[in-house]
Design brief:
Blueprint (H helix, E strand, L loop, with lengths): L2 E8 L5 H10 L4 E5 L6 H6 L1 H18 L15 H25 L3 E4 L1 E4 L4 E5 L5 E11 L3 E3 L12 E2 L1 H4 L8 E5 L3 H12 L3 E6 L10 H14 L2 E4 L1 E8 L4 E7 L4 E6 L1 E4 L3 E3 L6 H4 L22 E2 L1
Parallel strand pairs: 1-2, 1-6, 2-3, 6-17, 8-15, 9-10, 9-15, 10-11
Antiparallel strand pairs: 4-5, 5-6, 7-16, 12-13, 13-14
Helix pairs in contact: 3-4, 3-6
């Protein structure tokens, strides 16, 4: 006999855990399912929080390293990357444990595992040992967020060709890193590693960085990053990325068709994100998706199945 809930939220990120807590506060018997093993989603685990922690720590390092130019002599400055990463991880752990405490405090049942639909009211949860638990829900909310997307034909190995997730946890400072994509996520990571000593090059298909932002802000932002030492190669299209013994070679073409290759230790591909909807068995229960694999909803966030929301 499967456990019965009035509401189940699949996904424990900022959308999912807040939704689950509020449902519980309104009196619904609620469960929250999270596959990562810790709550908080991308933002808290491998996004905003760790990246802002490293941005802050790398800025402090950069400032101290250049104090001598202002007449302040404090001896040799050394980077302890392992300690810096531990500091970043500690900030993440404290906050994820805090979210877990909030679920417990509000009497939300927390399942660690990967959720998928068995039917419109039944969910299968598989833990890290592949043990299956079945639960029943009157109402189900899909809050599984997004994941990094790569370029066609180029796969992340998270060692040489990396997503932002791996770029948050390098074990040593790369000598040279190419960031493919001039969006804010790639630029944040580029800024961190540039301050810590990496020769960073940004390859962008458009003629400006941070697409979607005001052009004036974009231009001023680029000036700041250039002063920091980041190199920009605008209107360059990445043709292919080939790994070698020391890292990778990125082959590009500019707007005039002229080829230019970049050799580096690490390639951060940061060209956007895609909906994290695969593996949910949405097709099995007939939940409609759009052409970008996003869950279709109406103005009330209801899918084509009246008890499932997204």
């Amino acid at each position: 006999m499967s456990d019965k809930f009035q509401a189940v939220v699949i996904g424990g990120g900022p959308g999912g855990y807040v939704c689950a807590i509020r449902l519980a506060q309104l009196g619904f018997k609620t469960a929250c399912i999270e596959s990562r093993g810790s709550l908080g989603g991308t933002c808290l685990n491998v996004g905003c929080i760790p990246s802002k922690s490293l941005l802050n720590l790398s800025e402090e390092f950069h400032k101290v390293k250049h104090l001598s130019s202002k007449g302040i002599e404090i001896g040799e400055i050394k980077l302890n990357l392992q300690k810096m990463m531990k500091n970043k991880d500690k900030a993440v752990t404290v906050l994820t444990k805090g979210v877990e405490f909030l679920l417990k405090k509000n009497k939300v049942t927390y399942f660690k595992g990967t959720g998928s639909f068995k039917s419109k009211n039944e969910i299968s949860i598989k833990d890290e040992n592949n043990k299956e638990t079945l639960i029943y829900a009157d109402k189900i909310i899909i809050a599984t967020g997004s994941m990094p997307v790569s370029l066609p034909g180029i796969e992340f190995d998270e060692k040489i060709i990396v997503s932002s997730t791996a770029a948050l946890a390098f074990e040593k400072v790369p000598k040279k890193m190419v960031v493919v994509g001039g969006g804010y996520i790639g630029l944040e990571m580029g800024s961190v590693w540039s301050r810590l000593g990496t020769d960073v090059h940004v390859v962008e298909f458009l003629d400006h960085i941070t697409p979607g932002m005001d052009k004036e802000i974009s231009n001023e932002f680029m000036k700041i990053l250039k002063k920091q030492g980041i190199n920009f190669h605008m209107q360059h299209k990445v043709e292919k990325i080939k790994k070698n013994n020391t890292g990778a070679i990125i082959s590009t073409k500019d707007k005039d068709g002229k080829q230019k290759d970049f050799e580096c230790d690490k390639v951060l591909v940061s060209v956007g994100r895609k909906p994290n909807t695969s593996g949910l068995n949405l097709e099995k229960v007939g939940i409609e998706l759009d052409n970008k694999k996003r869950v279709k909803t109406n103005k009330d966030f209801q899918t084509n199945l009246n008890n499932i929301y997204g």
